Structures are given as C-alpha cells and as structure tokens.
Inverse folding.
C-alpha cells in the first residue's frame, strides 16, 4: 500500500550525486514529491530529505540502492509519524490589500504567519508548518489575489537517532 | 578533491615531479599495475595518446575499431584475469560509444575503468565540438564517475577509480578529464586509495548468521545450492567445492557462475534459468533449503517469483546488502565476503550425503537427456546442430578453453554444453544480453589469458554488430578462434516468434554476406562447414592453428533451445519441447 515516506540521505557534498540519487527513483518510476538538500550537523556532509509515495518494500529497496552509492554515507526512511517535519511557504501579495482589506491582517495574525517584507508594491508573508496549514492559508488568501506563491520541500528530523558522526569516526579510527 | 574523505597510501615513487596531466594519467595507470588498455583516440584525449606514444614500451594500447569494442575487450580481459580492464576514448561520440559496454559491466559486476577526454573546462556547457555530458549519461550505469577539470585532481581521481572498480562488488567507473587538465603541469605524486569514508566495500560478517545458516544446512533433508558469479569474483571456488563435497549438497550454476565449479563434478547438476537444465529448475521447487551463493535471483533465473522456491527456507550468501530480499525473501542472509563467510561456515557444517535427493537430479537429467540433450549433441537428422559443434569443441579442447559467447540461442547452447575444467572460463554477457559482445570480449580474454585457448561462439546476428573488430584481430595478431553458428536468423527472437507470436517472423531472417570472404579480407584463415563429415576436421584445424581462425558452421535454421521456462512462468513449468 502506498504511503508517504521521508527518505533522509547523509552524503559527501559532491557534484553529480544529486543526479545519481534522482536516477535511482527514476529507474523505478517513482515520482519525487519534494527534495531538499543542505549541509547537516557535520561539516562538509550534505543531507537530502526526499519525500515520495510508495510501499514499504519499494522504499526499503530504494534505501538499499541509495546506500550502495559510493558517496552516500547512510540513508534512512521514515513514515510521517516517525518524523518532525515542516514546510515553508511564501506568499507575495499586493501592498494595497494590506491597507484596503482589513481581513488580511486578521488572516495573517490567526495563521501565525509572518510578514517578511513590505515594499511599496507588494508585501511577502512567510508561513511555516504542515502542508495542510500552508494550504489553508493559501485558500484564505486566494480570493484577494496572490501575485506569487512558492512552497519549499519538506525538511524533517527523525524522532529516532541517526548516528552519522559515529559512522564517520569509525572510518577515521579504522 | 578532499583527502580527508579518502585513505591514500604512498607508493614507491614518492618524489613529486612536475609533469602534465596527460603524463599523470599514464603514470597512474602504471602505478595501478596496468600494462594493457583498449581505446580509440580523438581530439579531446589526444594529449594522453601523445604520452602513450612516449610510454609505449611500458603500456600497451590496443586500438579497437569502435569504442564499444574497447569496453567489451576490457571486460573480456577483466573476466578471465580478475584484473581491472581499462578502456579509453575521446569526448562526444567516443564517450557515448562506451555506454553499452559500461552498462554491461555494471549489470555483470565487471571491474573496469573508462577514461574519456572532455572539451576544455572553459568550453563546458557551450555545446562545443564533440562535447557531451558523459557524466550525466553514464551516471545510472556506473558504480562511480567523476569529472576532472584540473590536473592536480588526476592522481586522486584515478586512485579512487581503481579502488572502487575492483573492491566489494566490482563495477565500472568512468573518469572524464577535460583537455586543459591534460595539458596543465603540476607536481605529481601517487598514493593508492585504500578506503573511502562513505563507501563500505564489504559488509562485516556476522558470525551468528553463519551459525544460523550452518544449523539450517545441517538440518536439511533436501538442501540445494545455486551459485553465481560472486563465487568467482570472491575467489571462493575452493570453499564452494569443499562445502558441496562435505555436506553432499547438489549444486547448480547461474549463467555467470559457470566454471566456478568444474562441469564434470559429480555434484554439479547443471544450470538454472530460462534455458537451464530440467532438474535444477524443477527441483528448485522441491528442495527444503535453498542456499544461494553469490547470485542475485535474476528474473531469468527465477521465473515467476510467486511460485519460486516457496516451500524452501532460503539462505543467501551475498556481498551487496541491496541484493538481500530484493527479489526473493531470505530466511538467513549471510552478508560479507563470500570466501570469508564460507570459510567460517565449513567447520560448522556436518559431513553428510543426500543420495536419494541427488538421485532425483539424475532422474530428471535422464529425462532431459532423452528429450533434448541426445538430439542436440548427437543428432540423427541431416542438418548440423549448435550443440554438436560445442560438443566437438569440448572434445578437442578437453574443457580447458575459455568460451566467450555472444547473446542468443548459440549462447544458451554454449552455456548448456560447454565443459569447463577451471574457473573464469565462461565469458558472456549475462545481465544485459549485449549482442556484439563476444568478438571484442574474446580479444580481451585472449590477451588476459594468453596461455589458454580462447574460443568465441557467436551467432550470425551478433557477429555483425561488432564485426569490425576483425581489424583489431588482424592488426594485433591475437590468436582467437572464432566460431559463427550461422542459421541465417536472429535465432532466439525467431524461436519466440515461433512459440509465442504464431510464427510471424518479423525482421528476424538475415540475408548474410559471405563471412569467409570478409575474414579473408582481414587475412584471417577461414573455413565454412555445411556437413557433419567436415566438422571434426575443421575444428581440429581451428584449434591447431597458431594464429586467429574463423570457422563458420551452417546449422539448422529453425532449431529451438530447450528446456525453456516461458517468460513469467514458474520454474516448475520448465518445458522440454
């Protein structure tokens, strides 16, 4: 049965690895719903957070293939229940609305969103949260007109430990 | 390149010297013990070729007639010698022509390093002449790849390339070197790579798993071993033989596992798979413990997974953790280097005999012999069969030859009937099924084992996919023996058309050229055999020849290979006719 899985990959920060990783999903005809790469808690080590829907057998095999890549240090998969995750959305809206439509200020306040910037022509709202929360804000703002909308990929940390430092230490000591 | 991520050890030539990147490529190859490479020159790799000229006494370069030929030759060389094969090409079409061989090496776990030239760094991404994104193209079919854009990175990149290609589960690595990096001068010193922090070539053996496996084997009434190329790659042939003999376990091979155990060994029951032997396929569904050693349960081996060995407890000896439970769910996965795990297993396994169980294999063999083998090897009909050609070659070489086969009916017949006395004797394209593999692979196989007889068995279709390598044979005088089993058809496809597509022979009939004239054009002695009475003499003449020899045998046009498990059917549905 298909389910949303968060795949976390710790890797070396090498050019070309992104295409190697995405090729593993492509080969199995699995669509990547979101992908985020950043440096992690260890210097020079990258962390990929990939969200995709598949069954557990598939995600287990994909993680096996990912770990086989030379520059992948370790890969994990988790269900939503096993992770703390967030996404960030940015809404660009006409500045006039902020003053003309009182309701917008209430929407921003009630949704715990932040105003990132206010310019003469537009202002930008940032909202971090679960998908349904950014979706809800979108639905509320849409009637007023949204100039631009963008949402980040999921970022997630697992509830369980991922012991990468120990793995790297092991190599140094070997 | 960062060095804290790799463990590099100094080799003999410690003093650093100022040389060009191109010369560094050659020196790196020499440091890795390479004395033979295959390739084809072109614009973006010319500085390296210029250095090859300088080092021609130390590093022999074989000019193939197509870059694909260079990869297959490097594969053939690697498969018989156990060393890393090296292929070199220029950018653009030179590089893309390597891709089939790289994909073949990836799926068949062959250690190979490919070096490609690339346009200068400042032209990357400009659609320069002969620019192609070979890193992007080759990513899914390489174990690792890396683009070098400055000379100083060449030694580390090549040291890692060789380490990665040969360690763990071997595979192909591609190093793409921009032309400016080949020209640049830098202080060269070489350190061999001994470890990469993000790469664990071999999982650590878990002794508890070995004990679990031993207990299962000791309690089995009908244990059955299926072994693959992992035994050869892991140099565990002796351990496999000892295990089989000590515990009295019947064993069968995958296509790529052939020759890991001598064909004539009394417990070698044959080959599994789509055109494998009757007993080994059928009895997969009768055994109580299935012991898979260095094999990956390919679909051509298992047929329908839902009806594959469901009654059996499965033990899987495997170096690649991603293979465990990939296709067949295992009860005991013994991860690690197969030589090490089998060595640990051997003292724990009790001496045993399973005579009644082995007799079941013999009974099935008798059925197969009567229905299939007899007619293949000793046909009563007028036309020649592929099987009798292989049988004659067996007789003449005694089973000591390296048999290099292409892809199709002749390949299955060669794998079914060729006799192998020693390991690393069966060179064929297993996973990818690359037609055109055999002729160039035979060149590499002969160069990798010059003291052995190397016989290429090729169909008339595949032969014409890389026929230009006759030029390489002519130029290098490499004494390979080439047998084309000519049925004027793409035989395996035709067989499927006959069995599953109502005999609608769409584009499978070949109007062939005069192969003898072609061979003679390359000054290769050649003979055509059409009748049984000429066959013995022709094979004698071919084997006796000190130089390359081409033998065309015209065989029955519409013979089929049996047994056969139709696609998607169960191993229990192995058909004899």
């Amino acid at each position: 049965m298909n389910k949303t899985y968060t795949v976390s990959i710790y890797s070396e920060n090498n050019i070309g690895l992104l295409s190697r990783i995405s090729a593993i999903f492509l080969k199995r005809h699995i669509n990547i719903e979101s992908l985020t790469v950043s440096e992690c808690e260890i210097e020079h080590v990258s962390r990929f957070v990939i969200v995709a829907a598949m069954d557990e057998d598939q995600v287990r095999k994909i993680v096996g293939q990912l770990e086989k890549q030379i520059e992948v240090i370790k890969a994990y998969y988790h269900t939503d229940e096993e992770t703390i995750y967030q996404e960030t959305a940015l809404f660009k809206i006409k500045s006039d609305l902020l003053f003309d439509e009182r309701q917008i200020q209430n929407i921003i306040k009630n949704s715990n969103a932040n105003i990132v910037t206010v310019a003469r022509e537009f202002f930008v709202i940032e909202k971090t949260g679960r998908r349904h929360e950014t979706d809800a804000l979108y639905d509320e703002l849409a009637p007023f007109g949204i100039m631009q909308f963008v949402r980040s990929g999921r970022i997630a940390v697992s509830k369980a430990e991922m012991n990468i430092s120990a793995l790297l230490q092991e190599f140094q000591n070997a | 390149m960062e060095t804290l991520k790799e463990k590099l050890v100094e080799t003999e030539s410690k003093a650093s010297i100022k040389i060009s990147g191109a010369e560094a490529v050659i020196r790196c190859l020499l440091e890795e013990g390479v004395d033979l490479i295959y390739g084809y020159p072109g614009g973006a790799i010319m500085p390296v070729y210029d250095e090859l000229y300088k080092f021609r006494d130390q590093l022999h370069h074989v000019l193939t007639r197509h870059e694909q030929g260079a990869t297959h030759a490097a594969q053939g060389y690697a498969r018989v010698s156990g060393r890393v094969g090296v292929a070199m090409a220029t950018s653009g079409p030179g590089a893309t022509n390597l891709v089939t061989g790289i994909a073949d090496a990836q799926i068949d776990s062959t250690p190979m390093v490919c070096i490609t030239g690339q346009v200068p760094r400042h032209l990357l991404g400009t659609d320069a002449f002969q620019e192609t994104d070979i890193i992007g193209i080759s990513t899914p079919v390489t174990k690792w790849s890396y683009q070098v854009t400055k000379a100083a990175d060449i030694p580390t990149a090549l040291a890692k390339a060789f380490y990665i290609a040969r360690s763990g589960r071997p595979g192909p690595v591609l190093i793409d070197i921009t032309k400016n990096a080949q020209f640049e001068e830098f202080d060269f010193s070489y350190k061999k790579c001994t470890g990469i922090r993000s790469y664990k070539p071999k999982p650590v053996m878990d002794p508890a798993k070995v004990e679990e496996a031993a207990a299962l084997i000791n309690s089995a009434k009908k244990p059955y071993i299926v072994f693959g190329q992992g035994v050869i790659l892991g140099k565990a042939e002796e351990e496999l033989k000892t295990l089989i003999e000590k515990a009295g376990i019947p064993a069968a091979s995958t296509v790529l596992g052939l020759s890991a155990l001598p064909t004539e060994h009394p417990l070698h029951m044959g080959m599994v798979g789509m055109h494998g032997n009757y007993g080994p396929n059928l009895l997969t569904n009768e055994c109580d413990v299935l012991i898979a050693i260095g094999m990956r349960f390919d679909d051509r081996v298992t047929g329908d997974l839902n009806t594959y060995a469901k009654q059996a407890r499965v033990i899987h000896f495997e170096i690649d953790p991603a293979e465990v439970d990939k296709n067949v769910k295992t009860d005991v996965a013994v991860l690690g280097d197969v030589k090490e795990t089998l060595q640990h297993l051997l003292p724990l396994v009790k001496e045993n005999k399973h005579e009644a169980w082995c007799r079941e294999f013999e009974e099935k063999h008798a059925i197969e012999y009567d229905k299939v083998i007899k007619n293949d090897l000793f046909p009563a009909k007028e036309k020649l069969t592929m099987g009798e050609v292989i049988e004659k070659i067996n007789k003449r070489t005694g089973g000591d030859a390296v048999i290099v086969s292409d892809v199709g009916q002749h390949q299955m017949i060669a794998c079914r009937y060729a006799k192998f006395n020693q390991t690393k004797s069966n060179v064929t394209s297993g996973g990818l099924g690359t037609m055109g593999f055999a002729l160039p692979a035979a060149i590499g196989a002969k160069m990798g084992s010059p003291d052995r007889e190397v016989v290429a068995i090729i169909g008339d279709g595949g032969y014409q996919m890389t026929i230009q390598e006759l030029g390489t044979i002519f130029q290098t005088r490499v004494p390979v023996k080439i047998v084309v089993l000519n049925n004027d058809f793409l035989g395996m496809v035709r067989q499927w058309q006959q069995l599953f597509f109502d005999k609608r022979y769409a584009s499978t009939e070949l109007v062939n050229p005069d192969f003898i004239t072609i061979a003679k054009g390359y000054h290769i002695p050649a003979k055509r055999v059409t009748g049984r009475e000429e066959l013995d003499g022709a094979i004698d003449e071919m084997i006796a020849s000190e130089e390359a020899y081409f033998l065309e045998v015209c065989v029955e046009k519409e013979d089929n290979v049996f047994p056969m498990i139709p696609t998607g059917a169960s191993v229990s549905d192995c058909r004899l006719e």
Notes: The domain at 3-84 of chain A is CATH 3.30.70.260 (Alpha-Beta Plaits). Residues 73 and 167 of chain A are 8 Å apart (CA to CA). DSSP finds six helices and nine strands in chain A.
